Amino acid sequence: MAVNLPTFADIEAAAARIAPFAFKTPLVENADLNRELGARVLLKLETLQRTGSFKFRGALNRIGKIPPADRTKGVVAFSSGNHAQGVAAAAALFDVPALIVMPKDAPRTKLEGTRAYGAEIVFYDRDKDDREAIATALCAERGSTLVRPFDDPDIVAGQGTVGLEIAQDAALRGVALDAVLAPCSGGGLIGGIALAFSVMSPSTRILSVEPENYDGMRRSLAAGARTAAPGGAPSIADGLMAPIPGEIPFALAKLHLADALAVSDLELMKTVAYAAQTLKLLVESSGAAGLAALISGKYAARGKTVAVVLTGANGDFSMIVEACAQNR
Amino acid sequence: MAVNLPTFADIEAAAARIAPFAFKTPLVENADLNRELGARVLLKLETLQRTGSFKFRGALNRIGKIPPADRTKGVVAFSSGNHAQGVAAAAALFDVPALIVMPKDAPRTKLEGTRAYGAEIVFYDRDKDDREAIATALCAERGSTLVRPFDDPDIVAGQGTVGLEIAQDAALRGVALDAVLAPCSGGGLIGGIALAFSVMSPSTRILSVEPENYDGMRRSLAAGARTAAPGGAPSIADGLMAPIPGEIPFALAKLHLADALAVSDLELMKTVAYAAQTLKLLVESSGAAGLAALISGKYAARGKTVAVVLTGANGDFSMIVEACAQNR
Q1: How confident is the model at residue A328 (pLDDT cuts 50, 70, 90)?
Q2: Which terminus in chain A has less CB density within 10 A, N or C?
Q3: Residues B236/B175, Cβ–Cβ less than 8 Å
Q4: CB of B55 within 8 A of CB of B147?
Q5: Residues of chain B by 3-state class (helix, strand, coil), percent to 5
Q6: Rounded to an integer, what distance in angstroms lies between the CA atom of residue A31 and that of residue A33?
Q7: Which one of A57, A114, A280, A326 makes the best mutation probe of the B interface by having the most chain B beta carbons within 10 Å?
Q8: Contact check, Cβ <8 Å, B317/A277
Q9: pLDDT of residue A75
Q10: pLDDT averaged over chain A?
Q11: A226 near A250, Cβ under 8 Å?
């Protein structure tokens, strides 16, 4: 099936569309991290993006493109959390009603965040229900627009602005990036970043990082076709549990991704603790996957200059506390 | 007594001297904070500075000016923590031996941090010993250079680079700042910031924020002469317990400070929790005083554009956890 892939020009257009609302997040370094890895690591802090994650970018770009006549009919999204908050906040900015289909066991911080942005929430059961079917039915009923979490060219173009900003910031500092690593679930972010770098800096290697057992992108690239990961016990990376990459992200990944890695829950926990204790940065477990690949040594960073996206900071704070206690 | 005041040119020279080693820290915004205060707040993240606080800047500037012949004789500093780490790390960069006189009850994070940078530590008792006398004696014995925490023109010029960066970043964004707020202990930082803004943007009001009972700057400005605060029970802001501002900082404050505020321990705790939960930022209690003045309403921010320095993030993590638990 042919998919409608976004282009670099779509990312540039997305950047212009979101500029009045989204923050250009900082790209920071830490001397201890650099020394310990024998590398230069630039951390892109999407943890400080509006709504606490990069998901706001894609949602804003998608909802911003809904024709005015359709806006009053609202948007519907299904999400374990950060996409929910991104859609809720973006919809509020355009005065569009938002209805979010969320798992009953979503982290409290993410539930509260979504409600605080004024969205209506419909719960589903991860084990029993098909969230996409629920969302599609709600859209049909209300005439609402479905805002998919990743398999949508406007979402991918929106998330691609993260890559655009990294490339622009690195160029401003005269830094040549050997690689960019980012967490991957359905692949909207990594697909967008890979697309941005394919034009901005084609020699930079782009790598996705998934939780073990939820490594659909890794399996799909190895197989040459979209392949589901086994799943199983829930990962602590609740935002990275999509079993299979989206069609659009996978098509971009096949074209532009250098490699796909996976990290364990223990590696994620250690990284969350390291981020708080040493880097003085709050990051949720899902948001730490890229950095976990460096800290665990699964990506050999020594001698390289690497950018890593810390994608969000909406995890339950108690999890960070527990991670720090275990890391003492 | 006439004091040798630093000039704006000294801040510019300090900026050039520290540029190869110190980070230009980000100046970020948070949409929730802006909305809740009805203001625009730019947060200067010295929490992400090398050594986890702004103190690295002053130490680097001071130690960088020690003549090569004196460097082998080392430096001595007395500090409750962040200045210790700043001096230890700066000394290590110049291959200068560092000896730090620290209180026995300094937070563990700060002790460990100081040791990790390779400094030798000598302990003193806050209640019994005169730390300055101990440090002075050690200097006399070894021929070392004393690196004072705030009452030194090179330290003040180094900390002033925080103000210079804020002014430059604001100008780049086309933002006119109504005010800048920063925590104050001996006054090195606020004195340096005030000096930087007196040239870069004289209409911006500069305000110091101290813990109640350790509000030496506020009392000194009210009295028109250096006046000690009553002290008493230790503040949770362990880094802001200097009873009286330094001569140089006070001289600059008299010339350039618009006002001096004080906040309670409870206000500091709430701010530390708010920073973690809402802003997704780790900040130690001492580093949160400026922001606490906004959040508590002691500074009326409504309708204003304000920069606030978050000065450090080396507090014991358990304190942040406790603050968050109390704020639920």
Answers
A1: low
A2: N
A3: no
A4: no
A5: 50, 15, 35
A6: 6
A7: A280
A8: yes
A9: 98
A10: 95
A11: yes
CB-based contact B317 A280, cutoff 8 Å: no
* Both structure tokens of A28: 């920071």
Encoded tokens for B2 = 């006439």
CA distance A226 to A251: 9
Q: Most B CBs within 10 Å: which of A47, A48, A321, as the mutation test of the B interface?
A: A48
- Residue A206 tokens, joined: 């782009």
Residue-level pLDDT at B321: 80
With left for phi above 0 and alpha for psi between -120 and 50, is residue A89 left, alpha or beta?
Answer: alpha
- Residue A40's SS3 state is strand
Angle, CA B52 vertex, CA B85 and CA B43 arms, to 5°: 140
Exposed / middle / buried, residue A316 (Cβ in 10 Å: 0-12, 13-18, 19+): middle
CB pairs < 8 Å spanning A and B: 45
Residue A313 has pLDDT above 60, yes or no: yes
Q: Identify whether the C-beta of residue A200 lies closer than 8 Å to the C-beta of residue A261.
A: no
What's the predicted TM-score (pTM) here? 0.95
Average pLDDT, consecutive stretches of 10 residues, N- to C-terminus, chain B (328 residues) = 88 98 98 97 98 97 96 92 93 96 83 90 90 92 96 98 98 97 98 98 98 98 97 91 96 98 97 95 97 98 98 85 79
Average pLDDT for A260-287: 96
- Residues A184-210 have a mean pLDDT of 98
Angle between helix axes A317-326 and A265-274 (nearest 10 degrees) is 90
Which amino acid does the sequence have at A120? E
Return the sign of the alpha-carbon dihedral for residues A276, A47, A242, A78.
Answer: positive
